[in-house]
Amino acid sequence: MGEVEPGPAGPLEPPEPPEAPPSRRPGGIRVLKRTMKRNGSRHCLNRRSRFGSRERDWLREDVKRGCVYLYGADTATATAASASATASSSSDLHLVLCTVDTPASEICAGEGRERLYLQLHGDLVRRLEPTERPLQIVYDYLSRLGFDDPVRIQEEAANPDLGCMLRFYGEKPCQMDHLDRILLSGIYNVRKGKTQLHKWAERLVVLCGTCLIVSSVKDCQTGKMHILPLVGGKVEEVKRRQYCLAFSSAGAQAQTYHVSFETLAEYQRWQRQSSKVVSQRISTVDLSCHSLEEVPEHLFYSQDITYLNLRHNFMQLERPGGLDTFYKFSQLKGLNLSHNKLGSFPVLLCEISTLTELNLSCNGFHDLPSQIGNLLNLQTLCLDGNFLTTLPEELGNLQQLSSLGISFNNFSQIPKVYEKLTMLDKVVMAGNQLEVLNLEVLNCMSHVKHVDLRMNHLKTMVIENLEGNKYITHMDLRDNQLTDLDLSSLCNLEQLHCERNQLRELTLSGFSLRTLYANSNRLTAVNVYPVPSLLTSLELCRNLLECVPDWACEAKKIEILDVSYNLLTEIPVRILSSLSLRKLMVGHNHVQNLPALVEHIPLEVLDIQHNLLTRLPDTLFSKALNLRYLNASANSLESLPSACTGEESLSALQLLYLTNNLLTDQCVPVLVGHPHLRILHLANNQLQTFPASKLNKLEQLEELNLSGNKLKTIPTTIANCKRLHTLVAHSNHISIFPEILQLPQIQFVDLSCNDLTEILIPESLPATLQDLDLTGNTNLVLEHKTLDTFSHITTLKIDQKPLPTTDSTVTSTFWSHGLAEMAGQRNKLCISALAVDNFAEGVGAVYGMFDGDRNEELPRLLQCTMADVLLEEVQQSTNDTVFMAHTFLVSHRKLGMAGQKLGSSALLCYIRPDTADPTSSFSLTVANVGTCQAVLCRSGKPLPLSKVFSLEQDPEEAQRVKDQKAIITEDNKVNGVTCCTRLLGCTYLYPWILPKPHISSTPLTIQDELLILGNKALWEHLSYTEAVNAVCHVQDPLAAAKKLCTLAQSYGCQDNVGAMVVYLNVGEEGCTCEMNGLTLPGPVGFASTAAIKDPPKPTTPSSSSGIASEFSSEMSTSEVSSEVGSTASDEHNTVGLDAGLLSRPERRCSLHPTPTSGVFQRQPSCATFSSNQSDNGLDSDDDQPVEGVMTNGSKVEVEVDIHCCRGRQLENSPTLRENSPTPCLEERARGLVFGIRRQNSVNSGILLPVSKDKTELQKSPSTSCLYGKKLSNGSIVPLEDSLNLIEVATEAPRKKTGYFAAPAQLEPEDQFVVPRDLEEEVKEQMKHHQESRPEPDSSEEGRTELAEEFDTAL
């Protein structure tokens, strides 16, 4: 078992550092002895540590083989007798080859170690049992993450970066601060007492638990020991002696020990730890999260310990300091052993009769022993997160038990033992398997007042008799499957939670009802009788109610009413005129008008957004004098009511949201009546001006949003708004930069998508300015001085000037994107976006959105790395499900240590040519984890492509998390951390939180108009339909994205919000093909050829943008230029004039790829053409200067970026076959003959390489060019070639050095042109050359191979 076959002979790779061949160890384990170097930041291996070819070949033979990285301990613990814990850094690391059947005992034998340890996510360290199989543990871990392919699992297991999630140690690692918290010990000089009567003596001093232990060095275990309790005592610095502390106990008979330390570091460690102990009021010892299997024996000397916290450890039973010895703590009252994976209940704990609090949650218990009834003083027992199905009857003996937690177990009914536990007032059974709610069982428990049955499987309710229950006051039935609920028998019910069920009807008793939460159901009727006179809060949002219940209108004490997201058509007068109502939420209904107000009302918050209102009540602001918040966005308001009837306004309105209405300039004067206004949103209305005199009076204004209107200027009186910190005015027609840089508190300014042309800035900018967005102003030109002035701003967004881009395939015609991110009311932006319009050689695009919730580090990491990971995975697999899943899983691994505690939602959209569906040009693959979503607009309708992985919206994921015994808190968060069930990162929450994404693919059609990507905050406030309708008619994608974020903020979003809009144009109108071959313009065309000796090898592009123009590190640019340049001017063959009239290949777009077997491949080569020039632009032998050619003297150097593709069939270029001269033997040896052909203004010049056979042929007489000029370097250059290159050089950008480098991609104007005054001369010369050339042999013509075409950009 575990026998490993020897690897193949030969040296190991890499050669550095030197390696010894694998050696055979006991048990058949092969260990690679090499010095592994670590990455200082992530503690991962670099590439030098990877195994060589022999090991790699050995692994390929069987997927059940693999390797385990065995790390040394970072710090080794010291014994109690040592001076202190010494840290020994170990840099050597072993790579152990084994199989999935190899147990830990064999690896230990091969390594000469006693045991192995496993660390998950850089946190706890667990000792492996001898029978456990390390490689199988790794494979199971990867399989749970989401890897399915055994070969890929084998590859991932061999990746050293996996150590950030899963790592094996040969020794147990411990951090120094953990060791100090467990035990401090050392031999120091000690003096007893406060006086100097006693002498200094060398003693062993131990600080453990709550006591200081002083003993003799020789008889430390058997001799006399002095124990000094420190809780409530003192630790003081002895000033008369260096590095000396005085430890004193509490009480009237306090004792004191002076301890002198040798170094400052020891002195500080002891002072820091002892100060924590003496500051406690209760004798508490916290040893949680220390990977302990037992407590130190010195802890038992602390007999005053009352509370011991051992949460998140690996405590064992039969150990000197194990759980079986805890009965020695005579005063122990509280013990926390949660998350210790005990498996079975420690029976000996039942002998600690002093216990009053015991926490044993998440330990995998399936039953409880009957001895638990011996803990008669127990008051709190927590057993959450186990596998219990029953409780023993002996538990009923615990008459003092007042709290019993059995949530997230496997109970199918309420245990009967609750009837005996009369001190219990709560039944807490969330996350179990109850299917029937039997009220008769609860009627037998008169002591129970609170019932928590959330997240069960409740479907029905059973009432066996009509006798009412007078005891239950609080009921929590959230996240079940109830369809009808009648709790009218609970006559004393005060609070009910029944959110996220499937309720159609709800019936309650109103005698004592105070709060009712019934959101997210299907309610059409809610019956409460009698009228709840004590009701204060009623939440019925996201239901199917068509009217507000009558009993709610009669409730005299109601303060909060939320009936948003229903089907209401009117608001009763009694509701709006209520003398107790302070908060009314009626948004997202069908209300057409609000009733008029007659009396003054105490209403403070009114949300009426997304209705059908055309006007507000005329007396709204005059009668609702306490109104502070009003949101009337997304209505059809054309005017606003006046704020006051007299001269002075009494309005207290502070927040006013009127976005997406029909308001005009006439509403602005009304706003003056609200002098306390702090936030004003008037976006997406019909404002054309904002009177300066009106804005001048809004002195308290802090946030102003005027985007999406028709404003041409912002009034200069905005300078009087001294408290303004946010101005959003994008998507207007503003041409003059507003005077906002004088405001002392301005922080955020968004003037994107306007008509700004210049900016007048003051001498100094306000220090508070953090974000300035000027994108989308096409006519704006910023001088360097202005940019320097803005350099201190944290975020400055301006348009990047478009680079010259022309290529045979222009993918920007198919899609374009716009991105908007807004921080809201938070201090930092925790979302990032990814946008690559030209991905994977320009034939696709990638867009992504990442939301870190409260952290900004992970979204930025994913933004920088995820596209590169996708590019690598696309090259390994063509299956969209496979490469998308692997992209997420690999990105999850690459987060390293940052992903251990932090997490992020991620959304990735990949557009690529569709090879599977011939009717579609492109396919869209979307993958996501978390809450970021993508929606496709198809024929004007939204098509969701993502899945929301949250506990509230995904019952299947919630059940998976429950089955794995996670604790879901009342706010629906996994272990109180996150509501998401799948994230990238958060590895410490494995296996509850996984990185495996949801993946969907859809072919894009001509009906697909746009794609919207957004984070959680966006989709919480905008429906899919509204988002699509809001941007489908916006021309600019940037303005569309800005609009979505503005709408979300106006609808109530206060969190980070991000939106990306991708406009799609994948129909035939987006085609850029040339379907027919075009002849060259002008009377004459020609082509010249150049042979290149050793062209560089094509390399795989490493950039996710698809642009690969880098050189191999083995050959520098100058080397390539010199080599190619000398060859290019060596020998030339000419082609007849008719070659210029060749039917050139059609340029094809991604919609209509070239119907050949060839695949486009970019070859990052550089060809340099050199010719010596005199100062007047002449060759050394020329007599006349060339007209129109201007040179800088010296040398002309042209760098040519060659794009290679396979050639067409021979019959596609018959003219070339007929007119091309026979190459010489040297040219055949080179293998390629380049021909430069003239192109029209759309296509670039291309090189035609003609491959030749290796057979010997007769040397052609055309080896030397008849009409070429011999240059000073001895090379022969045809006249037309020389003139053509000179002409191209004159059009290239100048450099002071006298050289120029042509752009990597050809402009349409860059083409080979024959000067008109030379056309006739060139034509005659070429004709004469063709006539004097001997006819090529027919046999050799047959051997002429197909000419490859090189798309050459100068």
TrEMBL record:
Low complexity: compositionally biased ranges: 1100-1128
Pfam families: LRR_1, LRR_6, LRR_8, PP2C, RA_3
Catalysed transformations (reactions): O-phospho-L-threonyl-[protein] + H2O = L-threonyl-[protein] + phosphate; O-phospho-L-seryl-[protein] + H2O = L-seryl-[protein] + phosphate
Ranges in coiled-coil conformation: none
CDD domains noted in UniProt: PH_PHLPP-like, PP2Cc, RA_PHLPP2
Chief place of localization: cytoplasm
Membrane topology, from the record: Peripheral membrane protein
Location(s) in or outside the cell: Cytoplasm; Membrane; Nucleus
Transmembrane segments: none
Lineage: Eukaryota, Metazoa, Chordata, Craniata, Vertebrata
Biased composition annotated in UniProt, kind: Pro residues: 8-24
Gene: PHLPP2
Region (Disordered): 1-28, 1089-1134, 1147-1184, 1318-1354
InterPro entries the record matches: Leu-rich_rpt, Leu-rich_rpt_typical-subtyp, LRR_dom_sf, LRR_domain-containing, PPM-type-like_dom_sf, PPM-type_phosphatase-like_dom, RA_PHLPP-like
Keywords: Cytoplasm, Hydrolase, Leucine-rich repeat, Manganese, Membrane, Metal-binding, Nucleus, Phosphoprotein, Protein phosphatase, Repeat
Known cofactor(s): Mn(2+)
Protein's name according to its UniProt entry: PH domain leucine-rich repeat-containing protein phosphatase 2
Compositionally biased residues, Polar residues: 1153-1177
Biased composition (Basic and acidic residues): 1323-1346
Job of this protein: Protein phosphatase involved in regulation of Akt and PKC signaling. Mediates dephosphorylation in the C-terminal domain hydrophobic motif of members of the AGC Ser/Thr protein kinase family; specifically acts on 'Ser-473' of AKT1, 'Ser-660' of PRKCB isoform beta-II and 'Ser-657' of PRKCA. Akt regulates the balance between cell survival and apoptosis through a cascade that primarily alters the function of transcription factors that regulate pro- and antiapoptotic genes. Dephosphorylation of 'Ser-473' of Akt triggers apoptosis and decreases cell proliferation.
Entries under PROSITE patterns matching the protein: LRR, PPM_2
EC number: 3.1.3.16
One GO CC term, this protein: nucleus
Secretion signal span: none
Molecular function via GO: metal ion binding; protein serine/threonine phosphatase activity
Domain PPM-type phosphatase: 816-1064
